[in-house]
Amino acid sequence: MAMDILRSHVSAVRLFHGGGTRSRSCSTRRFNVRANLPFPQQNAKYYKELEAAVDVVQRACHLCVHVKSSLFSTDGKVLEKNDQTPVTVADFGVQALISLELSKLFPSIPLVAEEDSAFLRSRNLADTVLNAVTAAGSSFCRPLTQDDVLKAIDRGGKDAFVFGSKPATYWVLDPIDGTRGFLKAGKALYVVGLALVVEGQIVIGVMGCPNWEEDLSEKSSTEIEEGCDALCGSGTVMIAHTGCGTWKKRLNSQPKLHGVWTRCFVDGSDIVHKACFCIPDSQTWESLPLSPLFNATSSADNVGNNQILLLGTCCGSLCKYLMVASGRSSVFILRAKEKTIIKAWDHAVGMICVHEAGGKVTDWNGSEIDLAADKVGRRIIFPSGGVLVTNGNLHNQILHIISLTSRV
């Protein structure tokens, strides 16, 4: 039954792309390797890497959309990994697709990613993922095989590369952050997130969110009239490059709109109880250190002096980073629970997007997040207390509150 479910997920993808052929020749299948980025190439040291990342993340998002389109047309349960988290063909397909393209363009740069192929091998599902990757399109000049896909997935697996203590250059990928959101009907948010780390610093980041919808409440009627077609209800891709800012555009841009980027900035809130907050779906407001001073409400009409507005978003951490970087939320706060491992791919790309939009990211002591703390695998981060993401204006105020309430 599980195999039938995953295969049915792929059927819609294959039909959308016009058949089930396993490969397309390089002469007939062309890919957008010129992303028309919003800043000059001479200003961006990692321009080529960012171009490639934008292209492959956009294609990965389309893979997700078309796999999801068949998700609710079948009966049965979604497969769960050993840690009881859900997984779909899209998770493996996105990792395989992005790994394949990046290894071809930048073969010397290793990949740190969430999945490995052991789960697929144990259930003989490699062919299912192969079909999904093929349907999404590959720039390889020969037909892909199951072995190609399995090796591509494992290139980002935990046993693929040993870093050691020296500075390194590597990609960090979360194929789908918010798989629970991906599995929900409707507009629950999920993100494909890709970042490049060079000597401990995140230098570029790309987030693709197929279900993102713009909040037009603060835009003028002229801005809405001129830009609504490019902004509303079509998903978003957000990019950041060190020193070049954070930008976003419509994910499903038509050719005439391609390259229409909007600069992103965090909001200007500087009073805690007038700011908008978001927290992980797995945590409650009462578990966080601000709760003794402020109650939380989901209604903007009910916000008082001792209340804050808590925005509901689903489902992954990267969605919250996107909220802060785009100015829709002022603060994202996460508590580091005991026995809970915090993964680098849940935060890396969001960190640069918030930073380049004018915000700040630290642990609860105010220290920067150390991506190299896991010296061997670069897969785990160890933020003291938790992670605090803000618009910058509120950062020290909230750190002070955390410090005071932790002493009580």
UniProtKB/TrEMBL annotation:
Signal peptide: none annotated. Its cofactor is Mg(2+). InterPro entries: Inositol_monoP_metal-BS, Inositol_monoP_superfamily, Inositol_monophosphatase-like. It comes from the Eukaryota. CDD domains: PAP_phosphatase. One of its GO terms (biological process) is sulfate assimilation. One of its GO terms (molecular function) is 3'(2'),5'-bisphosphate nucleotidase activity. Pfam families: Inositol_P. Keywords: Hydrolase, Magnesium, Metal-binding. Mg(2+) binds at residues 114, 174, 176-177, 346. Belongs to the inositol monophosphatase superfamily. This is PAP-specific phosphatase, mitochondrial isoform X1.
